[in-house]
Please model this.
Amino acid sequence: MRPNRKQRLNPMDRRKFLTTAGLAAAGLTAACKEGKPVAEKELPSELGAKVSAYGERSKYDTAKRLVPELKRPEIGSTTTPLADTEGIITPAPLHFERHHAGVPEIDPAKHTLLIHGLVDRPTVYTIDELKRLPSESHIYFVECSGNSGREWKAPGAGDVQKGFGMASCSEWTGVPVRLLLEEAGLQKGSKWMLAEGADACKLFRSLPLEKVLKDGLVAYAQNGEAIRPSQGYPVRLIVPGYEGNTNIKWLRQLKVVDQPYMAKDETSKYTDLMPDGKARQFTFEMDAKSVITHPSGGRKLADPGFYEIRGLAWTGRGRIEKVEVSMDGGVTWKAAQLQEPRLAMAFTRFRMPWKWDGREVQIMSRAVDESGYVQPSREALTEARGLNSNYHFNGIKAWRIGADGEVHSV
Model:
């Protein structure tokens, strides 16, 4: 029903109503300051930069991956500047890297993918042949199992990038592993799959066949363009929700087998040493985790007033159902707003309006996923698993904001 003339607001009243209502709803009125009149600036009179074959970001945007100094730079990792990203998609140039033998230069015209083992029809695919097959696109996170490893030794890393930056989220496009294995014809007794890369160290992992048939993707594109060399060009395996090292880059073979092979890359590392001396193995799923990215360690709040607490949450078990934020060191918790759509095994962005009064405060977040799993405190996690592991840390992360606005790791 359209309002009659008497119900309509004149333009000035409408503008006043919307402004007042918007400020009140967000709790911003107290944070607003009286501004000075702004003089109209003269527009540029010269032509701007010329068109280019590939777009570049502004020179004023300085977010970049952190590259540590290493004796062997081919063997190491970089981290994503999570505090400087928006939404849930990580730009491909900022996606974290982890290499065991450097980034190989592979000619896609010469690269092939072998499907063999317990199959009726062993097959070799070229990249062009893979791209002719039915494809799918999905948004998934990839997280190194060593992400947040410093947090085992409190207070951990000083900022989000150092502590949590070995996790990124992209749209991946490729061929479902299910389709490739159905075409090959699975034989009786097929329970596991070996995936091997074409880098110098021949990284390979054993994976449960049930998981790769359900979710596995042989991906050749990331965020709308070809996968970059550092991310596995020309083709990589995506196993959503599983630890990053199972997402084999530069994929060259998938072998169907009847049991795990206990390979070098799943025995010498990627196991969790427990307090009793035993080690957990094949701990594939990444447990629910969240982190506040703003305000966060290494940053500073300019002055008291309104801020939006922002962060990311993710889980290898499916979808994030809830994120709670505490502004009093974990004494009380309040549900944050979750950005939709919330996708399974993808980053979820959470937000909460907050007015800082200028006093010292400790903030933290905890995630709950659709399985009912609740992100544990660091104390609960270390009580259960000790301090001997380097992998799979997902304890609650706290930041302390001092009266001077400086943000520190707790």
